[in-house]
Amino acid sequence: MGTIIVQQIDGTTIPIAASPAISLVNTLLSAGIAIHHRCGGKAQCGTCRVRVESANPDKPCVNSITPKEAQRLTAIGAHPEQGERLACQTYISGDCHVYLFD
Ligand code: FES
């Protein structure tokens, strides 16, 4: 379990609870937060890109990037070294901040 502080495009923030068993994109959608997810969570479109920062820099708050996700992140020009992830491939295991893109 973790708490996500979601920063929306307009700068407002929303705290929501997250389970490590549910993808971040589904967690956001269940909380009523709009996020693109054109391919339905198959790591094929890249429209669910977010940036994730752990609330504790010494403790990761998400699962590792898989080769499939890394391939898509590269294809869309994302910056995983800066915390960019595909929300459909991300599972939250601790407290973190999530930044949405347009
Ligand atoms: S929903 Fe398509 S890559 Fe995540």
Structural summary, described in words:
The chain is an alpha+beta fold. The protein has one domain (2-100): Ubiquitin-like (UB roll) (Roll), CATH 3.10.20. It has helices at 24-30, 67-75; strands at 2-7, 13-18, 49-54, 84-86, 96-100. Strand 1 (2-7) and strand 2 form a beta hairpin. The model has no long low-confidence stretch (mean pLDDT 96). Bound molecules: FE2/S2 (inorganic) cluster. The site of FE2/S2 (inorganic) cluster has 15 residues, from loops.
Strand order of the largest sheet: 2-1-5-3-4
The string of secondary-structure elements, in order, is EEHEHEE
Query: SS-based structural class?
Result: alpha+beta
**What proportion strand?**
25-35%
End-to-end Cα distance: 27 Å
Low-confidence spans: pLDDT under 50, at least 5 residues?
Answer: none
* CATH homolog superfamily: Beta-grasp domain
The top-level CATH class is Alpha Beta
Q: Can you count the helices? A: 2
Instruction: Catalogue the ligands.
Output: FE2/S2 (inorganic) cluster
Shape: globular
Fraction of helical residues: 10-25%
Main attributes?
102 residues, alpha+beta, Ubiquitin-like (UB roll), 2 helices, 25% strand, binds FE2/S2 (inorganic) cluster
Brief description of this entry?
The protein has helices spanning 24-30, 67-75, and strands at residues 2-7, 13-18, 49-54, 84-86, 96-100. It has 102 residues and is of the alpha+beta class.
